[in-house]
């Protein structure tokens, strides 16, 4: 089945509101085995709405429209829908009764402007709205079913779930089995990942690959489509395992997992404790660690030793060492890790010091120079990194790399 979506509203076109409705509709359709083939967004201009409805209807079996069903002067979707389907607007008694019922529950009479929400195309079949004032409605144009929903996300989602998805499932071609597995990768570039995996795509078995980048992560999306759920699940499992083998330890999480949640699971499983000493990241690693509920079971302490004085007075880093080697150095990172481990009594201590920029770099230590040190019961190791990007990007990737080092270390225990 060919399904399209249309979002309506000037606020979308001006960038004032993010179109979360389109994403929510596509996600729910995909879970039901249906794909959105085309998506359009238009402003509150009647001619543009009419043209968009007619264009999508000509190329689709179903179109899901959201927005423009409110009581204000710019809510013109119903009027445009009537023009697009060669219909006329009439006062819909059922919709008017619903509006009066909502007003009564709120303890007052129906405002005259709200009555506009009951002016609907004569051929419309109502979609109940249990969470708001604006009823949705269904029209047809040719062989295409047109579903009109309010733009309020909570109302739209509920009406989609309760009315539209059940109707689409009952139609011929109303859903194949679609499954997606996600591998989250840190380290190699998108091109390198594609070179390793591209041959896994196989139209014959319904396997396709897609990639997404959210700095500094790469998401590998393995999609499988078929008629039989068990076969699709087995194909996805086989393809996922082949991809993992090729990507090795650069895969740090799958599906809904995050670096934070994976690391939390490892700390709980290994029954070891952690402390942190952060400079250039300003507590970012500690924030991500403590964002996970229950992290107090393994995270003992974090020190943001931003100034040299704090490195000395709190962590015990020698002022002479700071003067000789500089705050951004392997030696100082090592001393910070030992200091916070000694201070907290943790099993593992991680220290971060670097130059996030945009100022402060030198020819010997340019912006993006970062040292990360890890002190354990047996030794202390330090790694040097040279990162690139904005201040925010350098801090973000530093936190990721620090947490990823913890991940690989805990796996080795």
Give the key terms.
413 residues, alpha/beta, Molybdenum Cofactor Biosythetic Enzyme, Chain A, Alpha-Beta Plaits, Maf protein, 3 domains, six-stranded mixed sheet, five-stranded mixed sheet, 14 helices, 17 strands, 40% helix, elongated
Which CATH first-tier class of the largest domain would you pick?
Alpha Beta
**Proportion of residues in helical segments:** 25-40%
Name the CATH superfamily assignment of the largest domain: MoaB/Mog-like domain
Distance between the termini: 51 Å
What is the correct CATH architecture of the largest domain? 3-Layer(aba) Sandwich
Q: SS-based structural class? A: alpha/beta
Architecture blueprint of SSEs:
Layout (H helix, E strand, L loop, with lengths): L2 E6 L1 H4 L6 H12 L4 E7 L3 H14 L2 E5 L10 H8 L4 E3 L1 H13 L13 E3 L3 E3 L8 E6 L2 E6 L3 H17 L7 E9 L4 H8 L9 E8 L2 E10 L2 H19 L3 E4 L4 H12 L3 E5 L5 H7 L8 E6 L3 H6 L5 H7 L4 H15 L3 E7 L14 E7 L4 E7 L4 H22 L1
Parallel strand pairs: 1-2, 1-3, 3-8, 13-14, 13-15
Antiparallel strand pairs: 4-5, 6-7, 7-8, 9-11, 9-12, 10-11, 15-16, 16-17
Question: Can you offer a commentary on this structure?
Answer:
This protein is 40% helix and 25% strand. The mean pLDDT is 96. It is elongated. It has 3 domains: 167 residues, MoaB/Mog-like domain (Molybdenum Cofactor Biosythetic Enzyme, Chain A), CATH 3.40.980.10; 78 residues, Alpha-Beta Plaits (2-Layer Sandwich), CATH 3.30.70.2860; 153 residues, CinA-like (Maf protein), CATH 3.90.950.20. With 413 residues, it is α/β, with parallel strands linked by helices. The strands form 4 sheets. A 6-stranded mixed β-sheet has the order 2-1-3-8-7-6, sandwiched between helices. A 5-stranded mixed β-sheet has the order 14-13-15-16-17, with helices on both faces.
